[in-house]
Amino acid sequence: MSIGKYIPSKIEPKWQKRWEESNLYSTDLSKPNKYYVLAEFTYPSGDLHMGHWFTFSGADIFARYKRLNSFNVFFPNGFDAFGLPAENAAIKRGIHPQDWTLANIERMKQQFATMGASFSFDHEVITCLPEYYKWNQWIFLQMLKRGLAYKGKYLSNWCSKCQTVLANEAVEAGACWRCGTEVVQKEIDQWFFKITEYADRLIWPEKPDVDWPKSLRDAQNIWIGRSAGALVKFDGLEVFTTRPDTLFGATFVVVSPEHPLLKQLTEANEQQKVEDYVAAAKKKSELERKENKDKSGVFTGSFVKNPMTGEEIPVWVADYVLPGYGTGAIMAVPAHDQRDFEFAKKFGLEIKQVIKAGGPAALTQAYEGDGVLINSGEYDGLSIEEAKKVITDFLASKRIGSQMIYYHLHDWSISRQRYWGTPIPVIYCEKCGTVPVPEEDLPVKLPYDVDYAPSGKPPLATNEDWLNVKCPKCGGEAKRDAETMDTFVDSSWYFFRYLDPKFDIAPFDKELAQKIMPVDIYFGGAEHNLGHTLYSRFFTKIFHDLGLTDIEEYALRRINHGIVLGPDGQKMSKSRGNVVNPDEEVKKYGADAVRIHMAFFMPYEGSSGPWISERVWGPYRFLERVWNLFDKVTGDQPQAKDLLMMNRAIKKVGQDIEGIRFNTAVAALMEWLNYLSGREKVSREEYKTFLQLLAPFAPHMTEELWEMMGEKYSIHEQPWPKFEEKHLEEEEATVAVSVNGKVRDQLVIGKDIASDSKVVENKAKESQKVQKFLEGKEIKKVVYIPVKIINFVTD
RNA sequence: GCCGCGGUGGUGGAAUGGUAUACACGAAGGACUUAAAAUCCUUUGGCCUUUGGUCUUGUGGGUUCGAGUCCCACCCGCGGCACCA
Question: How far is the CA of A614 from the C1' of B39 (A)?
Fold first, then answer.
């Protein structure tokens, strides 16, 4: 029996077609034993890139493995189709954003098909379709009803080129992450989601019920940044402090250059200096201000009274105090805060110690721990924790302070002055004011004909027919809200919509969600640690509170995947010219080889590594050898050693896929193949098992060989091989013999005597190589770790 | 500056505190071939007096019978950020 040459291009399209025609991967959600595999859906930018391949091929390996382990796997895919790039590209090329986006989706779906992934594509979600964004609007209205959506003014990051507000996450080095234009601060009217009301519930507990990376949880907790402290009045000036216990050590006050009371506080003779300073601070980009290590600042000329000591202390203005946090003013305690300390030293301000630490710690180190108060009048001797409470109570009783909790997290601004997004379902009537669009009128469809080029007014306002409506309340003249929602709204709940993308009674079917949610495993990038994954958790809790679902966390396990770098080890980018196109790799090596290299060339989770195209020949040759092994298959029975190798591979590959260690799973298959290749003949059982273990990684080739073996379609529906413990036991054991920790010899002994330390010790002593190092020495100790190593310790 | 992750051959990378360098790439040599490619086989961490020995996981200490792995200090790289009062 002789097999032809392995030619991926002859195999792959054929099976992709067959799988689709036979609905091999469609999921019947009514069946039991569900397993929901989710990978962050794709922005339809035009072409699938290596990052998409890495994410989805890994997720697909996992999905296939679970399916073979008799889970009813749900592995949907879709497109995060609203967003700025569509609009920018459209403006640049004169194509309508909708046409551009839908064409890209078609193209990318074809590219996805070449991957041979086992998507449940009959559950596709595309966020720019009215059947999806209708429910963004519905959710908005529910939030509006409950006061969770509100309109406010806000000092926002503003990109003058994109004519739009940017989220904090979208500002890179003080510039717009899309176009690079410097971001300025501008006060804007916009809609907010009140995520701060959920701040406490979004904080991760020490030991959560779900398996999310600790680094992600820590990052989110820090981002939420709950700090409990006190609001304290220094005369009319309010400051926020987390350390009211150090109030006696507050020797000056610092306000931010943006502080509204700064003008009032500035004395006439200092006015010029202060104005110059404020002007200089405003010129600094946010990044410069952050990285500025030299403290700068000027005296305002005025004084306020320390409410505890009654002393008049100076008020300074400095840009190390930020306007966006607390009250934009601080009390400085230079003895116990590093920044205040540096500032005081530079400008010769008073430093007064009020906490005494146990040891001879530097002043500022007395900040934390088990210190007690000194120089604090009647509070001397109190512990830090006691003092915080007692002093805050005292301030409250005198109405010059109160307990206060601040969060770093601020409410989520969702309004965008853009075209390509979900219209905000609100109508403004001169008589009735802000009127929500009635639910029965949803969706508010995005009009096709607008002038979407940036002009300073929202693109939707350029379509008068759409803009002007009758007020739903009074029937009078009214106008729609012409802004659209942040696209993070779309991606905050798409995994619920996947369950039934056509469901038209609610965003999703509660009963179905009860069955299928939460997501069992969610593959995505660490760049979404603070944005998307946090917003999704927020939405899930809102759905919970709306009675739409019982769950509070939407994914049981989160995998942060690695990053595929260019061959030069740098991030792939057009400007660097190091972008590798996956289509070309597939053309050269076939999808199966590319998939295996993806799995093999670096750890999947949290890593980053260079894609060096020539190296895909390795996995390609590996597949070729598997292919050619077909000719060696006979009806013989495998021997004990053969069974050992096979069962080892079954165990290792399964455990490694489960643990998202695809690289070592592939290595285990290579090792087994090396063993099989060294033999004259290979049993049918071994070869079949090999194909089954390889199937999640190389679905096309294994399907082809499976068919050539005369097995029934499809290999992707066979139960995953089970290993048997009895075959994993070796008759002979190898024990390393070491003297003083250095290995000197190997001992091959029968399994039956390996547990007897005395026997092993005597055997070990017989070794000439070992004797050489024991000669003339006294053995002080013998340590035997069964079936691994025996160590002689000498003097 | 703070937080997180990492530093292992020429390269990508393996190693529940128990034989460091699995697996692969690259390289060298050989077989086959008129020749080349492909394929197959062998070798491949450094050093030395080479059937052996010795050193080696960023640097310096420590714990341990035994450390790439645990602890302390430092250096370097990558990612993230909030001078957060």
Answer: 18
